[in-house]
Amino acid sequence: MTSFCAKPKARKNLAGQVFGRLTVTGVSSVRNASGFVQWNCVCSCNTKVRVRTAALINGNTRSCGCLKINHLRGRHNYQAQRMLKDYGVWIHSRDPWYVRGVQVWGRIKKDNIPSDFRSPVEVADHLRSIAPKTCPVFGKRLTTGHKKMHDWSPSADKIDPDKGYVRGNIQVISMFANRMKQNATCEQLLQFALWIMKTFWNHKMVGQSRNFSDVNLTWYALRLGYDLTQEECEEIRNTTRKGYTVARAVTEYVEKKENGNA
Q1: What are the residue boundaries of the structural domains of the chain, listed by start?
Q2: What's the distance, Cα to Cα, between the start and end of the chain in Å?
Q3: How many C-beta atoms lie closer than 10 Å to residue 215's C-beta?
Q4: Which of 6, 15, 166, 212 is most exposed, with the fewest beta carbons within 10 Å of its own?
Q5: Contacts of residue 111, Cβ cutoff 8 Å, sequence gap at least 6
Q6: Are 68 and 62 in contact (CB under 8 A)?
Q7: Rounded Cα gap, residues 66 and 72, in angstroms
Q8: 27 strand-pairing partners
Q9: DSSP line for 51-99
Q10: CA 64 to CA 153: how far, in whole Å?
Q11: What CATH architecture is 95-181?
Q12: What is the rounded CA–CA span in Å between residue 226 and residue 32?
């Protein structure tokens, strides 16, 4: 008895096709949990999603989820109506930058904060464009994608609180740093830092330490009347002999600088 093997069906190429609000850009290298092929799609709201073949062809998935929200009807659509009324657009919760855009926009409207943005989408796009990879204050990597905000989540900060959320006055720092800064002025932050140094820092302990962090080096140099830059701190770390303390390393470096030999 002869057995025949069925020829596997050729995979349909959906690239370039449009299904509802979704435009297929190509096949994804990632399969879903059941092992089915998925397609990379871009929604009309600019959200990128992966959808399996059957869901596209059968019409079960026609958007990233925004279509369902915008089509809500009846007395149970309070959240959708509220967002559309306040912001004029549905912000997909899976994009962390759009979530932050909505949060900033809500503060702008609630507290009448000055702003030159016209929508939460503009806020989100601006934050995404200026966000660094690491926190400028602590040097820790900024991470998104968590369900809740954490210490190293990116956070929008007003450089000058009185100017509000306007382009050029916004920086992205970690949530941890932003909680410490809040709406304090430069003078208030400097006063707080001086109090911390006087209350909790012992210059002898720092001087005898072998922890060559930027904070220790800069603080000890300030006691000698010299303001170290970040590049100079790195130079001290690279050139200091093994076994040196912070006090000895900084003192020798400052003396060389003052004598013009560094």
Answers
A1: 18-68, 95-181, 201-259
A2: 91
A3: 12
A4: 6
A5: none
A6: no
A7: 10
A8: 39
A9: EEHHHHHTTS--SSSHHHHHT--STT-HHHHHHHHHHSSPPPTT-HHHH
A10: 24
A11: 2-Layer Sandwich (3.30)
A12: 59
Q: How far apart are CA 106 and CA 104, in angstroms?
A: 5
> Token pair 């806020």 is at which residue?
123
Total residues found in the chain within this entry: 262
User: Containing H/E element for 251?
Assistant: helix 246-259
Along the 262 residues of the chain, how does pLDDT read in single tens digits? 555 454 455 567 888 899 988 999 999 888 888 888 899 999 887 888 999 998 898 888 888 877 765 554 444 556 556 666 665 555 555 677 887 888 888 888 888 899 999 888 889 889 999 999 999 888 889 887 655 778 888 999 998 888 999 999 999 999 999 998 888 888 888 888 878 777 766 766 777 888 888 878 887 888 788 888 888 888 888 888 888 888 888 888 888 888 875 4
* Single-letter code of the amino acid located at 48: K
The pair of structure tokens assigned to 135 is 């926190």
